[in-house]
Amino acid sequence: MHRRHDEYFLLLNGQAAVGLHDLREGSPTFGRSQMILLDGAQPTALTFPPGIVHGWYFSSEALHLQAVSEPYASYHHDDNWGCRYDDPELELQWPATPLRLSERAQSFGSLRALKAALAASAALA
Fold it and tell me: Which of 29, 50, 119, 124 is the most buried if burial means most Cβ atoms within 10 Å?
């Protein structure tokens, strides 16, 4: 999840599941989740604004393009927030359990912990 930039995701080949969860207070979809299944045979671009928790699962070898709406010089890891992909509060039905997770993804806590960290960070700002 990011606070400062939009994100763009395009699957060029292979298959992917993209899980989304809305943390934007005041949004008509606040607190809701959605799973979008993509197939590179029918390229579809997804864009999502700041405040959307997002993750992807590739069920096969795949190639994707990912971009953000923030200049490279101001893109920093302080705006990379996350939670466990399998947190029950997300209510996301992933197609399978990942065989590999990045170290960073393995370190994520619960959605509840993410919300608490975001609230604490906003209070300091």
Answer: 50
Amino acid at 110: S
Output DSSP code: residue 122.
Answer: H
Q: Are strands 52-58 and 15-22 parallel, antiparallel or unpaired?
A: antiparallel
To which residue do tokens 């919300």 refer?
115
Tens digits of residue pLDDT in 8-53 = 999 999 999 999 999 999 999 999 999 999 999 998 899 999 999 9
**E-only strand ranges, the chain:** 7-13, 15-22, 33-39, 45-48, 52-58, 63-68
Query: What tokens does 38 get?
Result: 């993509």
Number of helices (H) and strands (E) in the chain: give both, helices first: 2, 6
Tokens describing residue 39: 């197939």
Could you give the domains of the chain?
A: 7-124 (2.60.120.10)
Where is 40: in which H helix or E strand?
none
Question: Which amino acid, one-letter code, is at 99?
Answer: L
